[in-house]
Amino acid sequence: MSPVVIENPVINSPYREPGRHFKFNDEGITDEIEAGRRISSYFIPIARPRSRRGGQMAFDTEWTQERVKENEAINKIRDQVNQWRRGGYVGITAVSRSLLDY
Fold first, then answer.
1. How many domains does the chain have?
2. Whole-prediction pTM value?
3. How would residue 102 be classed by pLDDT, with cut points 50, 70 and 90?
């Protein structure tokens, strides 16, 4: 597959929770846009064995779903922040309230 070129990668407002994202498939990122926030995850590269001639270590960066792991802590924090927002920012100060309203 040829590399994907995304002309304008900014598709969300910096002031709101992301509402759409670029889709990934078995070969990597695509230029297709999907609704909703993408689940936070990371890719695990696997180091190839060093050659017996003292070569440098290289990483196998082949994209496979088995190497994608979810960032559970980040996704849990996102859920908690989302609940806090929907609940009206319970526990904030008046100054914080005015900044959020701004």
1. 1
2. 0.67
3. confident
